[in-house]
């Protein structure tokens, strides 16, 4: 009786390189966010899903402060269609988080925001990621051109070089 032939080797794509943590100089503007008791999970650090809330809070705080977002009556609203986050170091309650903001891409009706989360005075980000807003007409939910007030609020966030 002969031994069965070994299966052929499987070609696997190389794993992507792990990103490196961005630094504060990579961002155009900053917003402070404080962690809350409820943000910690049973492992004693801020749960991964909370980071996405920090992203959303930092961007929308900027837009509201700059007159680009009326959450109650605005005719155009942003819907999140894509998100991603890389984690580099844990954060926990009580800790102050500084969110660095930049705009990596601005299209006709969409914006890719990139956010770095820095714990206290750390120079390297504890986490960094992005999300994409597609701006739509509030009533029809169809893509709408970026309003002038929004474009003006995004200008200072253009990705630093």
Can you describe what's shown?
This protein has helices at 48-65, 148-154, and strands at residues 29-34, 76-87, 96-106, 110-119, 127-137. The chain has 161 residues and is α+β, with helices and mostly antiparallel strands. A hairpin with a 3-residue loop joins strand 3 and strand 4. The protein is globular and about 80 Å long. It starts with 28 loop residues before the first strand and ends in a 7-residue tail after the last helix.
Low-confidence stretches: none
Strand order of the largest sheet: 1-3-4-5-2
- Secondary structure tally, helices: 2
Give the tally of β-strands.
5
Tell me which CATH architecture applies here: Roll
- Outline type: globular
CATH class: Alpha Beta
β-sheet strand percentage: 25-35%
Summarize the amount of helix as a percent range: 10-25%
Provide the number of structural domains. 1
What number is the mean pLDDT?
A: 93
Question: Separation of termini?
Answer: 68 Å
Q: Report the order of strands and helices.
A: EHEEEEH
Structural class: alpha+beta
Q: Main sheet?
A: 5 strands, antiparallel
Radius of gyration: 20 Å
CATH topology: Thiol Ester Dehydrase, Chain A
By CATH, the superfamily comes out as Hotdog Thioesterase
